[in-house]
Amino acid sequence: MLTALVSPLGPSALWYVTRATGTVTLILLTVGLVLGIANVGRLASAGWPRFVVERVHRNISLLALALLLVHIATSVLDSFAGIQVLDAVIPFTGTYRPLWLGLGAFASDLMIAIVVTSMLRRRIGHRTWRAVHWFAYLCWPIAVMHSVGTGTDIKESWMLALTAICVLAVVAAVWARIGFGWPERRPPRAAALFASIALPLALALWLPGGPLGAGWALRAGTPLDVLQHAAGGSGSTTAPTIVDGTVKQKQSGNGIVEVDIALSVADRKLPQLAVRIYGEPAADGGVKMDASSVSIGSPANPALYSGSITSLKGTAIEATVKSAAGKSLSLVINLSVDKAGAASGELLAVPA
Ligand code: HEM
């Protein structure tokens, strides 16, 4: 019903709701965690008595759960990525960005467990409730990694700034928690301090080559048909095209093997593709790649886009190439090569 209502507005209306609810859930999760820590630390004032802090912490966490359910529902209802209900419950089982979506499912399972045990607190006893509640410290960074790894908006400066603010807020709260908590327990305090510095630092170092780098959609595990559909929607893709040509291999004096793959592409704008792989000979007759170059273009400008191979599995090649204007393409080439060196197969080129 919801799909029927939304789809006439455009295929990605549900996707926008997924993104919006994901972002608000993360903000609420962050505020909930900070208020939870404030509550344990008995941080209160005349204007904000402790029972208010506790109640706001509880209500914000409930609101976060409600929004999370909408976030999950819209991502499942949207047929775009083919996400199933089970993918949202059992981590790492889906086909769409399995690791990054799996982290979301993991965080969501933890969040549901934390909220449900809080509602049953009287029945299950303080010790069990508390043991489960500690998982909030695990749930939050996992949710952040899910957001960064699978979110579309992380490439926008506002989302980067928002994520940075959430991280800083939680780091400050954790430091306060370390300051007023468990004076007798040194190892967990040291571990929490280490994690609160090392994890944000690792995230900041990984982001530029990871989700902010070229070809992340492909590297993150987006199925090819989804990528193709997304790119087709924007009208800026080379559809999967038939390629054929030759594969030649020669060995130089220093033992390095050079494999030259010259392909004609059934595409008007980019009819020529050249792949070169350099490396030592492998036992199976192939080559252990040390270096590579890939260029795609026209007879007048054969290197309109150039770059290198990012993954090589047999004759399945993935590459990222860039034009002089800075436009990047992810290339996926699947070839079959006969004994005489004649190659044929398919090329998929999508904006990176
Ligand atoms: C505590 C749990 C979760 C939190 C806090 C969370 C939060 C987020 C955030 C902040 C984003 C980025 C939104 C953007 O870029 O604008 C996101 C993206 C996404 N999440 Fe979640 N999420 C959670 C669990 C889940 C689960 C269980 C699913 C599974 C169905 C899911 C599906 C998605 C999808 C498909 C996207 C990508 C949307 C896009 O392309 O931008 N999330 N999530």
Blueprint of the fold:
Elements: H1 2-6, H2 13-40, H3 50-77, H4 85-89, H5 98-119, H6 121-124, H7 126-133, H8 136-150, H9 157-180, H10 186-206, H11 216-219, H12 224-233, E1 238-251, E2 257-265, E3 272-281, E4 287-297, E5 305-313, E6 316-323, E7 328-337, E8 342-351
Antiparallel strand pairs: 1-2, 1-8, 2-3, 3-4, 4-5, 5-6, 6-7, 7-8
Helix pairs in contact: 2-3, 2-8, 2-9, 3-5, 5-7, 5-8, 9-10
Protoporphyrin IX containing FE is lined by residues 18-19, 22-23, 25-26, 29, 68, 71-72, 75-76, 83, 87-88, 101, 104-105, 107-108, 111, 143, 146-147, 150-154, 159.
Q: Helical residue percent?
A: 40-55%
Order of helices and strands: HHHHHHHHHHHHEEEEEEEE
How would you sum up the global shape?
A: elongated
Overall SS class: alpha+beta
Ligands and ions found:
protoporphyrin IX containing FE
**Low-confidence parts:** 1-11, 233-238
Quick one: biggest sheet? 8 strands, antiparallel, barrel
Q: Count the helices. How many?
A: 12
Kindly report the spatial arrangement of strands forming the biggest sheet: 1-2-3-4-5-6-7-8
> Got a strand count?
8
Report how far the terminal alpha carbons are from each other.
34 Å
CA radius of gyration? 25 Å
**What's the pLDDT, averaged over the residues?**
86
Percentage of residues in strands: 15-25%
